[in-house]
Design brief:
The structure is a single chain. This protein is α/β, with parallel strands linked by helices. It has two domains: 160 residues, Rossmann fold (3-Layer(aba) Sandwich), CATH 3.40.50.1100; 97 residues, Rossmann fold (3-Layer(aba) Sandwich), CATH 3.40.50. Helix content is 36%, strand content 17%. Strands 1-2-10-7-8-9 form a six-stranded mixed beta sheet. The longest helix has 17 residues. The N and C termini lie far apart (55 Å). Belongs to the cysteine synthase/cystathionine beta-synthase family. GO terms for molecular function: cysteine synthase activity.
């Protein structure tokens, strides 16, 4: 009997129908539970893909040092994949990330280098580029690496199509590095060009982990605007409120970007009927407990 390894169980996550949060108009709301991946987020897919494909091309070999800028979930996933495959992982991230995220990365053996909240992800990316230029490690660069969206083209998209028996009409995803929405869009549009792809970005002034509004100079090069039919701005308060709704009304403990995805799904549901609307629940909420976002309301 051949037993699976850890990398064999990345993906094939559940797609569940919401029961108490009603979409109305005979619409169906489906949540893709990416927190069920081994390291707890949708980023397990591209993390494993980027390392495995670079390894297959001979660009990296076990024992090498890999460097990546991250806001959290990609870093945790890369730390897991690096531990599994025998790489030293250096992660550069803003120091306002939740303590659970930092501890998870460290638990996998990654080295963490902080930048300030003010420097943000742009500063983390700049420092990663500087370190790579100095020869301190090799890049994966989730923002420009085609193996990022390819992971979703090969896995997430086909899963959604299969799990809905081809009935999916709308796909909704938060946009950070944009790998998820790019890969899924490409696959679903190949199956049915009428499937609507909706991306989410934060309103001006909102700070939602996992959702970004990038300055033009830092826009991920993997992003192709033509693959997104519509972009919806999500506010900080509505993302947090819908995150709590997922937990309290559906029993799905997830992060703030997943609350934003639910809010986006409900906005779409107000405009359509007889639709099958699937959204990505990017990660698990237990890595945000220290932030107080789930604390009882006073």
């Amino acid at each position: 009997m051949q037993f699976p390894t850890l990398e064999d169980v990345v993906g094939n996550t559940p797609l569940v129908r919401l029961k108490r949060i009603a979409a109305g108009r005979n619409n169906t709301l489906l949540a893709k539970l990416e927190g069920n991946n081994p390291a707890g987020s949708v980023k397990d897919r591209p993390a494993l893909s980027m390392i495995a494909e670079a390894e297959a091309r001979g660009e990296i070999t076990p024992g090498d040092t890999l460097i990546e800028a991250t806001s959290g979930n990609t870093g945790i996933a890369l730390a897991m994949a690096a531990a599994m495959k025998g790489y030293r992982m250096v992660l550069i991230m803003p120091d306002n990330a939740s303590s659970e995220r930092k501890q998870a990365m460290a638990a996998f053996g990654a080295e963490l280098i902080p930048v300030t909240k003010e420097q943000g992800m742009e500063g983390a990316r700049d420092l990663a580029d500087t370190m790579i230029t100095r020869g301190e490690g090799k890049p994966l660069n989730q923002f420009a690496n085609p193996d990022n969206p390819m992971a979703h083209y090969r896995t997430t998209g086909p899963e959604l199509w299969r799990q809905t028996d081809g009935s999916i009409t709308h796909f909704i995803s938060s946009m950070g590095t944009t790998g998820t929405i790019m890969g899924v869009s490409r696959y679903l549009k190949e199956q049915n060009p009428e499937v609507q792809i909706i991306g989410l970005q934060p309103e001006d002034g909102a700070s939602i982990a996992g959702i970004r509004r990038w300055p033009e100079a830092y826009l991920p090069s993997i992003f192709e605007p033509a693959r997104v039919d519509r972009v919806i701005d999500i506010g900080q308060t509505e993302a947090e409120e819908h995150m709590r709704r997922l937990a309290r009304e559906e029993g799905i403990l997830a992060g703030v970007s997943s609350g934003g995805a639910l809010a986006g799904a409900l906005k779409i549901a107000e405009e359509v009927e007889n639709a099958v609307i699937a959204f990505i629940v990017c990660d698990r909420g237990d890595r945000y407990l220290s932030t107080g976002l789930y604390a009882p309301e006073q």
